[in-house]
């Protein structure tokens, strides 16, 4: 008996979608098994079934050689199965220790025994080499550390099978590295890990085996060593995937967006964007590279009218839009894919059709007279975008909430791109999106550029910046530290600048690096 | 296979129904406890509230103000606001309508009645928009201001009706409104008034605004995800004020109907929690205009029937209050009911 987990012919039917169709999946003791596939291919569903959040309609689950019925998470936890969700389930005002022992009822008389909680969490984090301050409040932790708390929480409950659903989607490259170290340590200690991701590089770097799902079916399981990037991408999408967007040289026109000495503060009065001068021209893609949290979000929100500028000015075309309302900015010809689709980009409890008019809901075809909504126009618009952007399932009346993450992203992208804005801002446009959809979105970005849009691209993915941008600006600590044309840029140089290095020092550093 | 949208709608109906059934079952325990047959008691309750046109008319008469206040709470809720201030809006609307009713005389009916109704709506709308405005401009939670405004409305109308506008009799009430401002009684001797049509119209209008207009799209977006609404160019502050003003106008109509259709004068503290009952009605009606109408009728029926049950059996009328409370409890504990019915998230 070398399998800790076997799932046989799991089938799960949702209204309209067969999310899992006779899927077989297994996990060996102490292996890292990557689970990949397009958006909506059923990865989360399969793992939610394993964790007891959904029930399979047919199929069998065998854990440590015993057939089991997992009808709620309690059962999964008792079977030593732990899950880390993409959206964390932590109680923000509580401390790390309190969150980890939550539900375990450490009591001293009538009261919560916080000393013991801290003690136990310290032991645990030492045991697994997961450094964390048990007394820190969750709200004060970075995303990477919050994720670590989730992992510790699962381990505290004795998890020997650990499921991670797209754990890297929200992490910075450094945090991803740290996570990988942690997972390798866990593996060495015998934990079996299921790792869902869209990034093939991560599969190759981390996993022992990889299983691919497509439209609810399993396409195959392979030893990671026996596959490569192109091969995996083909298995996922069912056709050859182009990793490099082919694009013609840009034909930049006049300036569309111009920022002059723009300074933006956060709600605590801290300067996040520091006297930035930057412009984007018609027909070019300007990429902003930078480690997340260096002011990119605030910069973009100030342009969008979602955040006040403390000083400086912003122009869109010949109009000044400094501190205009979001509606005014949109009317000036602005399209925006926000970095957080759940918080900003979508009303999850609206239908796909209603989401596809957000921002243009007051405009011509969607209202008759001055106020009355034209349902037919709303649905025609939806059908068109659904078809053009291959949103699955293709149902306009479905709630956005019930779509998979990548398809939700396509709603936002489709809505913003089809308005053919003069200025298009894309913040992390392919986060959580599968390789096929990334290829598609990248092509669309270039198409927008070629149609004459000025595109401002903010991304934590260097690959994305490098393959799409005509010029690259590096943002560090609120300042634009360098603007380069695409042919001057290398990944290595960007990495150096993003971490606060100065361009003057780059050459010297390089020489030193080689000398050693 | 049910579509997802239909499945949701189905579930929206099943939960309140299950809550009512459960409440009645538990209620029958109480009835057994006082030594009566639950079936008999419930039959009396039913016959008395729906058994004849006359009984039905009484039920509808009791339901009318609850329809308004239920709609007033539900409408605000759709925009993400908890309108606990309906009670105050009822009083302000009522007084405004009464004032127009007794101040102007000699107006033709087709002018006087609409004028009084509009005044009632305006009174409620102003009172409702105050907490809306304070929330929009200063970020103060609407519940706190609305509760304070409830007290202010209560004492203000107390004073108005016993002071400057006292009717002269020894009772704390204003003068009678002129007949030209009164709503028609539809089925005498019951006191059902033409106000019921106003209530139905209010439900239709509320539905139309929420789901068929640009304004409704904005209001609901603000209710569901204010940050996404803001991103979509929707003015959250403006919509907050609009939602509370409309909600207030509808609550004001409840007061208006009570004055112009029932009391024909402003009586101090006539409302007796109509506004608060509206919260329960909205909850049971799942904050949907159609649901609110049915919930209001149910509450109206329980009130109508309870008197007869009290009279004809030894079941005290307080039982009805218990049943109402249980219904609210079970609707609020929807999760529990879903488990009982084994309705899963994806079903
Ligand atoms: N609760 C639900 N109700 C109805 N349909 C659902 C539900 N959950 C998921 N689906 C559908 O089932 C399919 C599989 O979804 P799932 O979330 O498992 O995909 P995924 O592989 O995790 O995708 P992604 O990579 O985008 O996260 C999708 O078509 C999705 O729309
Ligand atoms: Mg998923």
| Overall SS class of chain A | alpha/beta
Mean pLDDT of chain A: 90
Major sheet: arrangement of strands of chain A: 6-9-10-3-11-12
Q: What assembly state would you assign to the polypeptide chains in this entry?
A: heterodimer
Spans of chain B of at least 5 consecutive residues whose pLDDT stays below 50 are 1-5, 343-347
* Mean pLDDT across every amino acid position of chain B: 91
Shape field of chain A? globular
Please report the total strand number of chain B as a whole number.
0
For the largest interface, the chains and their residue counts are: A-B, 40 and 30 residues
Counting H and I runs of at least 4 residues, what is the number of helices of chain B? 14
Instruction: Bin the helical content of chain B.
Output: over 70%
Query: Ions, cofactors, ligands: which are bound?
Result: adenosine-5'-triphosphate, magnesium ion
Q: Provide the gyration radius of chain A in Å.
A: 24 Å
Q: Output the radius of gyration of chain B.
A: 21 Å
The CATH architecture of the largest domain in chain A is 3-Layer(aba) Sandwich
Structural class of chain B comes to mainly alpha
CATH superfamily of the largest domain in chain A: P-loop containing nucleotide triphosphate hydrolases
Word description of this protein:
With 516 residues, chain A is α/β, with parallel strands linked by helices. Chain A folds into three domains: 3-237, Rossmann fold; 255-333 and 421-515, Rossmann fold, CATH 3.40.50.300; 345-405, no CATH class. Chain A has 18 helices and 24 strands. A six-stranded mixed sheet of chain A has the order 6-9-10-3-11-12, with helices on both faces. In chain A, strands 18-21-22-15-23-24 form a six-stranded mixed sheet, sandwiched between helices. In chain A, strands 2-1-4-5 form a four-stranded antiparallel sheet, with helices on one face. In chain A, a hairpin with a 2-residue loop joins strand 4 and strand 5. Chain A is globular. Mean pLDDT of chain A is 90; it is low at 511-516. By secondary structure, chain B is mainly α. Chain B has a domain at 72-296. Chain B is 74% helix and 0% strand. In chain B, helix 2 crosses helix 12. The radius of gyration of chain B is 21 Å and the shape is globular. Chain B starts with a helix and ends in a 7-residue tail after the last helix. Mean pLDDT of chain B is 91; it is low at 1-5 and 343-347. At the A-B interface, helix 10, helix 11 and strand 20 of A face helix 1, helix 8 and helix 9 of B. The complex binds adenosine-5'-triphosphate and magnesium ion (MG). The site of adenosine-5'-triphosphate has 19 residues of chain A, from strand 2, helix 1 and helix 14.
